[in-house]
Amino acid sequence: MRPDFFPEIDNMSERCFRLWFRLHARDAFLIWCSGTEDGVLVDSARQVPWFSNTLELERFARERGMALEAEAPLLHDLDKVADWLAHGSSPLLDGEALLAAWNLFDDVSRSVGGNFDEDRSVTDPVYQKLFYGGTTANQVLRPQDEPEYLPTWSLDEVNLLRSTLGKGLFIFRQVLVPMSFDGATPAGQ
Length: 189
Description:
Blueprint: E1 15-23, E2 26-34, E3 39-40, E4 48-50, H1 54-63, E5 75-77, H2 78-87, H3 95-112, H4 120-132, H5 135-140, H6 155-175, E6 176-178
Parallel strand pairs: 1-5, 4-6
Antiparallel strand pairs: 1-2, 2-3
C-alpha cells in the first residue's frame, strides 16, 4: 500500500532539499523543506520516510513531481550526538553538531506533531548559547571589533541540553520509516 504524503510540501513556495544524516553507523537521507515553516516530508501516518541513498530519494521526489534544490547536503552526524548523550563527559563535544541536531529535531517534531522542546522559555537560553557560540554565528554575525563568543556552560545547562536533545533523538528514531527502492511502499511492509 502506497502511503499518502501531505500536500503542503507540494506548495510551490516550499524549497526542498536532500538532508543527509548518520544514525547507527548508517548514512541515510530524507527530504527537508523550507518555506513558511521549515519541516520534513511526512506521510499520512506522520512518519518520516528515509532513503538509503540520494538516487532513491531523487527518484521518489521525481515520481511525485517534487523539485529538489541542487545544493549538496551536509552531514547531520546523529551518532556523535547519541554518543555525547550517552557518554559525554565534557559539556559540548561539537557545538555545531548539537545545534544542527537541535534544529533537525525541531523541524521533524513540528512536521509529525511531536512535542520536542515544548517549554521554550526554559530551553531558549541554552539554544541561544549553542547558536551564538557556534562557528557560523561567530564568523557571520559577530561584529569584527568584538571578541569571539565562547559560552561557558553550567551543569544545569548541560543537563538541560542533554535532556532536550535526548527527547529529540527519541522522537526522531520513532518516526523514521524506510522506503523501498521504488519509493512506493515502506520497506519490509
